Amino acid sequence: MSKTSLLVSIIVLGLAGAAHAGGQAGSIGVGAEYQLSGVGGVSVVYDAGLFHLGGMIGFDDPAGADNTVFQLAGEFYYHVHHSAFADFGLGGSLGFSSDPVAPMGGMGATRHTNVYLEPGFQIRAFLSSNVALSATAGIVIGTVDASEVQITGQNVGAAGGVGIHYYFY
Predict the structure, then answer these.
(1) What's the CA gap between 159 and 118, in Å, rounded?
(2) CATH number of the domain to which 136 belongs
(3) pLDDT, tens only, 99-140
(4) Which helix (H) or strand (E) is 80 found in, with range?
(5) Structural domain containing residue 122
(6) Which of 15, 41, 63, 165 is 20 to 30 Å from 154 at the Cα level?
(7) Of the candidates 68, 69, 47, 57, which has an alpha carbon nearest to the alpha carbon of residue 165?
(8) C-beta separation of 120 from 137 below 8 A
(9) How far is 150 from 118, CA to CA, in rounded Å?
């Protein structure tokens, strides 16, 4: 290899920037996500670099009368640590769910208004430069008609599921 080729190679390598694998400041992600309580659905996340925040909306109207489910949630996580392919955030989410309740003893159908406060942490792992999987663990505090407290992590099934987002930048 000639001295000129070696010098050019060193300059090119020296000027090349580090590859970013997601979590890029100013990016917007779209996908699906569920809280620990199971509230969630289609979601949008804004990544500001030091933190990310997002919102979710879910709707289900199966066959039958008076059985529509409506869900709405928001989240905020401050990135305590990040690497090229993952970040670890502390924060939480607030969720709202309006659920039908089966009629009892001749009474008409009623609804429960469930509000969930969920402090915890979230790990996002970037599979590529703009696709992320997320998993959340924390405490679920149910208020209004939701009167329970849980310390849990996400699992597929009863307590929620993992999130996935595609980021545009």
Answers:
(1) 12
(2) 2.40.160.20
(3) 888 766 656 668 888 899 889 899 999 999 899 999 998 888
(4) strand 69-82
(5) 21-168
(6) 63
(7) 47
(8) yes
(9) 9
